[in-house]
Design brief:
14 helices; alpha/beta; seven-stranded mixed β-sheet; 15% strand; 382 residues
Length: 382
């Protein structure tokens, strides 16, 4: 006897056959360069905790203090019972870091992208998106009902050609891109993108998730790194990577932020960020602004590792994300297993997440030279 759900098992079997099947790996230790994973101590090259703040005593203390004062949950959306003074304090901290007029905090980065994109454009509008953008950007574009077109990865000429072809047909146009591409490690050409957006009367939304805290002199992200601070654009990012907490944000001019408070469904109808996460994010930003040596150590580690891996087939990278290409999912899985045996945690990244299989290594400020050297010593293809 068949049921309406039989297709799910068949689809899951197809995922197994393609070597796309995934299961979560359980970490039972404190976050850091060494983690306890399924009974083993492994050097961690899979974390987005670039500055090592997720386990920092100041963030932990801030989270505990906020929980004792406000409780474990925010109890409602920001427009109902969920707003606390620390939420606004965090937003002002973000605006100060990003040098914008204001900011708004969402409960996750994914929600920030979905809510912002769907608030800004609709069915009479156009979205042009880098083909390697994060899933949250792509899904936000699809949900908006705007005309959604990919342009070739970091290809400004292709973007310009598509703008010239399609822009005159639509009321508003939004260009969306990651600044640091999370599964490749390269960065967008932000200055040129802004010039093009301005010349074609387009809004530009940049996802700074993997840039905030690590790019730029003060850790403000690629907008600062490229000297674009103060120019007209929309900056989105997360609190869950270099900042060491949880949540997402959008930073920009005061009118934009006020508009999002009134139109972004994923902010209006979602329970506010927990007091603990909010307080930890505030503490993380304060450390980013007061301890530039963490960022300096991160880049020392990144440069050391890249110099030692020049003989391997790594994708071009301008960030702490280094990707080693593999011929197929099977090879990626085998290499990840070999590294695990050697005491290194670096999972295989496979389609459909990325177009080609790879091992993705993320470097942290808290990695010691011995950690990096152990990875180097084990990165030899058979």
């Amino acid at each position: 006897m068949t049921t309406p759900y039989d297709w799910i098992a068949k689809s899951l079997n197809t995922i197994h056959q393609a070597n796309w099947y995934r299961t979560p790996k359980t970490i039972t230790s404190h976050p850091g360069p060494i983690v306890e994973l399924e009974g083993r101590s492994l050097i961690n090259f899979a974390s987005n905790d670039y500055l090592g703040l997720a386990g920092h005593p100041h963030l932990i203390e801030a989270a505990i203090t906020a929980t004792e004062k406000y409780g474990t949950g925010s109890t409602g959306s920001r427009l109902l019972s969920g707003h606390r003074d620390i939420h606004r304090h965090l937003e002002l901290k973000i605006a100060n870091l990003k040098q914008t007029e204001d900011a708004i905090v969402f409960s996750s980065g994914y929600l920030a992208n979905l809510g912002t994109i769907t608030a800004l454009v609709g069915q009479r509008d156009l979205i042009l998106s880098d083909q390697y953008n994060h899933s949250s950007l792509k899904n936000g574009a699809k949900l908006s009902n705007a005309k959604f077109i990919d342009y070739k990865h970091c290809d400004l000429q292709d973007l310009q050609d598509k703008l010239q072809q399609y822009r005159p047909q639509y009321s508003h146009c939004l260009i969306i891109t990651d600044t640091v591409f999370s599964m490749d490690g390269d960065i967008c050409q932000l200055s040129e993108l802004l010039d093009l957006a301005e010349s074609m009367d387009c809004m530009l939304l940049v996802d700074e998730a993997h840039a905030t805290g690590i790019m730029g002199k003060n850790g403000a992200g690629c907008v600062e790194y490229f000297g674009c601070t103060g120019r007209s654009l929309i900056q989105m990012g997360t609190l869950s990577k270099a900042i060491g907490s949880l949540g997402g944000y959008v930073a920009g001019n005061a009118v934009l932020i006020d508009f999002l408070r009134n139109r972004a469904a994923t902010w209006i109808y979602t329970t506010a960020l927990s007091p603990a996460d909010t307080a930890a994010a505030i503490a993380g930003i304060e450390i980013i602004q007061s301890e530039p040596q963490r960022r300096e150590k991160l880049w020392q580690n990144v440069n050391y590792l890249k110099q030692k891996l020049t003989h391997l087939n790594c994708l071009p990278s301008d960030s702490p994300i280094i990707c080693l290409e593999c011929a197929n999912p099977t090879q990626a899985l085998e290499l990840a297993k070999k590294l695990t045996i050697a005491g290194i945690f670096a999972p295989a990244i496979r389609p459909p997440t990325v177009p080609t299989s790879r091992i993705r290594f993320t470097v942290m400020a808290t990695h010691e030279t011995a950690h990096l050297q152990q990875l180097i010593n084990n990165l030899v293809y058979d």
